[in-house]
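Design a sequence for this backbone.
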């Protein structure tokens, strides 16, 4: 079982794209594997022949490093492996119950130890000489799963998002789209079955539903718990006027001739990069290198942008924000956001950020909130919605003017960023946002 993401400790076997006896060339998709982040294709990187499948489609929680298939060289005798078993390959280990303390975050830099998809994780044609370890019972129920494609109904991303928003049980819906695909209209037409008041024995029936946690949900839980427990958070809030920014945005969009459409978040992403360059301590991370603890200060600003998807929170990265313009930021955010919601991000597109922005400004009910740091980063900015606030006019006639304002809250890791430094970062961010032409310099 290959490790297809830094946080992956086990995976589920999806559909095998090759069968025993099939030849495989570099780049061929061997099998679909459900990781802690998404369902991904495992591409083999050597020539060979698939001699035996040791883990069938639907197997759950196969630990990274456990044998899943036998590969032999071209011209080898496939029939010799017809009765080859997992025990012959050295047995298997159960996946760890808890994520390791030093596992990389979804924003952490990828390992330098080599390819994640190395074929070394597959059993070769010679079984291991060591005796198989004692079998261990894993936490799973032991039942064989359906393939990950069959386990979840086919549904469009918009349908999944709407079902999640309305609490619609998507497995109870019969799709009307091509190939039985569930569409947004199917979700909108869904009507829950009416049930009479419970009587007799039915009165003691459960009034809740236990929903199994997905691999991604478990990873999010582990990472955020680790962040809160190991990173001493502190929070700094500030109120920003965005009246000038909104006027500049309107003017730029009006002159774009449809080439781009800038959002408020595009400006905030750029402003965060400007602030990080002026206060580089925030654009840093706490790390251990060769047994020595260091604070790594990054020379470029790679901003992770929080995106809500039907299966959980993702943070795709806009790289080199300090050196690109608003049009380039806007294009990247739209592309990465769409592919995040469709589950098509590559691991390198959500690993390696240096700072994060989480914006809930599209929800008019959210004035402010605090966010959990995305380790090993040292800071994250939470952005609330825009509000019109009456302020005294500069004239002496006693009139008031309406100002568009937002409240932002920075969460900082006190191991890396002292309180006064976090306050300086918020001040620089406020200065750029309230004088948005500085982003053009």
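Sequence:
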């Amino acid at each position: 079982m290959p490790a297809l993401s830094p946080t992956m400790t086990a995976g589920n076997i999806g559909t095998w794209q090759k069968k025993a006896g099939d030849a495989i060339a570099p780049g061929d998709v061997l099998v679909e594997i459900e990781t802690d982040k998404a369902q991904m294709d495992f591409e083999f990187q050597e020539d060979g022949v698939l001699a035996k499948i040791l883990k069938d489609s639907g197997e759950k929680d196969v630990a990274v490093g456990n044998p899943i298939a036998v590969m032999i060289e071209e011209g080898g005798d496939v029939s010799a492996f017809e009765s080859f078993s997992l025990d012959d390959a050295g047995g298997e280990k159960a996946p760890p119950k808890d994520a390791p303390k030093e596992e990389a975050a979804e924003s952490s830099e990828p390992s330098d130890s080599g390819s994640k998809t190395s074929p070394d994780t597959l059993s070769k044609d010679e079984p291991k000489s060591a005796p198989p370890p004692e079998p261990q019972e894993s936490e799973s129920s032991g039942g064989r799963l359906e393939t990950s494609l069959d386990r979840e109904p086919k549904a469009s991303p918009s349908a999944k998002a709407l079902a999640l928003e309305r609490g619609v049980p998507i497995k109870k819906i019969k799709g009307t789209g091509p190939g039985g695909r569930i569409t947004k209209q199917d979700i909108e037409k869904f009507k829950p079955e009416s049930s009479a008041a419970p009587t007799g024995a039915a009165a003691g029936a459960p009034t809740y539903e236990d929903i199994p946690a997905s691999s991604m949900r478990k990873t999010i839980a582990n990472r955020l718990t680790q962040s809160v427990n190991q990173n001493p958070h502190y929070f700094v809030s500030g109120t920003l006027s965005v009246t000038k920014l909104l006027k500049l945005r309107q003017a730029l969009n009006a002159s774009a001739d449809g080439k781009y459409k800038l959002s408020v978040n595009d400006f905030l992403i750029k402003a965060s990069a400007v602030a990080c360059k002026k206060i580089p301590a925030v654009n840093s991370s706490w790390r251990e290198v060769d047994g020595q603890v260091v604070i790594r200060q990054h020379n470029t600003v790679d901003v992770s942008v929080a995106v809500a998807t039907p299966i959980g929170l993702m943070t795709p990265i806009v790289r080199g924000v300090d050196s690109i313009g608003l049009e380039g930021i806007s294009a990247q955010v739209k592309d990465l956001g769409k592919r995040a919601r469709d589950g098509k991000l590559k691991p390198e597109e959500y690993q390696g950020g240096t700072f994060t922005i989480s914006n809930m400004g599209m929800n008019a009910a959210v004035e402010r909130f605090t966010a959990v740091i995305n380790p090993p980063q040292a800071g994250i900015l939470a952005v609330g919605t825009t509000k019109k606030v009456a302020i005294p006019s500069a004239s002496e006639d006693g009139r008031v003017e309406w100002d568009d304002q937002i409240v932002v809250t920075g969460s900082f890791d006190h191991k890396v960023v002292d309180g006064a430094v976090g306050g300086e970062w918020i001040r620089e961010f406020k200065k750029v946002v309230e004088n948005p032409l500085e982003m053009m310099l």
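The two ends are 49 Å apart (CA to CA).
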